[in-house]
């Protein structure tokens, strides 16, 4: 069973390959494929639907479609049915779609299973927990998040300042700057009130300042990578693989885990150097 994780406002393209279940000479008939989605807990058809019906396509033995919408923290079952093939058989594949707006994983369960040559679903929960823990580790080590989404960040500096530095970057856009309860527009007429620097700094250029505590400034912005850098993803894979192999040797195979501390001593020398170099490259800048 395939597991897909996404945020509610995110759209993903999914492909299901039926070649391994088709008999010799068996083909899927165009126009017979159906893709449906239901909420796992209630069994209801979601509204709006999580499957874009107009996106369903067939290429050889592969059915592709887009998943979108979905409610935060809700799990859905998506059923892909080939309809009658030329041999009058029907084949079906179920996909679990989990929507979580706070989801921030830098590697997927399916990718990890392929890397570890795992073909069943018995370890999916364990692998997801390990990936989440390794993701948390990378984000704490670099003092930043990598997944593209909207962030809301509060600032209460010890002294008045003209510039604050956003925690998450690269920054795509700033939608709101609120200083002590008052919204500071980006532009009033031809006058800029603040500017956003390439490195994620927000500078007031209207003569004002960001106040010191106890007063608060709140900035809402979009940041992160559309596609997480491959060296970051590879570091997560190496951390998780090392932890998974160690747990298998110790006979621990099924229970869930919480957060865990990663030591580079758990990796071989080359892996430890690679992960350390990646952290160094992406570590939050200090101005």
How many distinct beta strands?
Answer: 16
Span between termini: 47 Å
- Strand share of the residues? 25-35%
**Spatial order of the strands forming the largest sheet:** 1-7-6-3
Major beta sheet, specifics? 4 strands, mixed
Q: What is the domain total for the residues?
A: 3
- Averaged pLDDT: 84
H/E series, N to C?
EEEEEEEHHEEEEEEEEEHH
Task: Provide the low-confidence segments as ranges.
Answer: 252-265
* Secondary-structure-derived class: alpha+beta
Shape: globular
Nearest-angstrom radius of gyration?
23 Å
| Distinct helical segment count | 4
Q: Helix fraction?
A: 10-25%
Fold blueprint:
Blueprint: E1 2-6, E2 12-17, E3 34-39, E4 51-59, E5 62-67, E6 75-81, E7 92-99, H1 109-116, H2 124-142, E8 149-155, E9 163-165, E10 171-179, E11 182-183, E12 187-188, E13 191-192, E14 194-196, E15 201-204, E16 217-223, H3 230-249, H4 269-282
Parallel strand pairs: 1-7
Antiparallel strand pairs: 2-5, 3-6, 4-5, 6-7, 8-16, 9-15, 10-11, 10-16, 12-13, 14-15
Helix pairs in contact: 2-3, 3-4
């Amino acid at each position: 069973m395939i597991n897909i994780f996404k945020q509610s406002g995110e759209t993903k393209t999914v492909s299901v390959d039926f070649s391994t279940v088709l008999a010799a000479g068996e083909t899927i008939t165009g126009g017979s494929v159906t893709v449906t989605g239901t909420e796992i807990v209630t069994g209801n058809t979601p509204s709006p639907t999580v499957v874009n019906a107009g996106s369903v396509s067939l290429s050889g033995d592969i059915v592709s479609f887009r998943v979108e919408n979905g409610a935060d923290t809700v799990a859905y079952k998506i059923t892909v049915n080939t309809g009658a093939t030329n041999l009058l058989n029907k084949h079906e594949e179920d996909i679990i779609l989990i929507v979580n707006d706070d989801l921030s994983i830098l590697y997927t369960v399916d990718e990890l299973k392929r890397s570890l040559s795992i073909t069943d679903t018995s370890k999916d929960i364990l692998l997801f927990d390990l990936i989440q823990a390794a993701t948390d580790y990378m984000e704490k080590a670099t003092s930043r998040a990598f997944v593209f989404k909207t962030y809301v960040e509060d600032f209460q500096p010890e002294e008045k300042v003209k510039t604050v530095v956003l925690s998450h970057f690269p920054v795509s856009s700033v939608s709101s700057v609120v200083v002590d309860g008052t919204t500071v527009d980006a532009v009033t007429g031809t006058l800029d009130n603040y500017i956003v620097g390439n490195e994620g700094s927000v500078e007031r250029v209207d003569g004002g300042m960001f106040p010191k505590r106890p007063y608060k400034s709140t900035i809402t912005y979009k940041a992160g990578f559309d596609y997480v850098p491959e060296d970051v993803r590879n570091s997560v894979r190496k951390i998780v693989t090392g932890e998974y192999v160690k747990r298998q040797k110790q006979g621990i195979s099924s229970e869930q885990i919480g957060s865990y501390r990663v030591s580079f001593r758990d990796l071989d020398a080359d892996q430890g150097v690679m992960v350390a170099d990646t952290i160094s490259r992406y570590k939050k800048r200090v101005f």
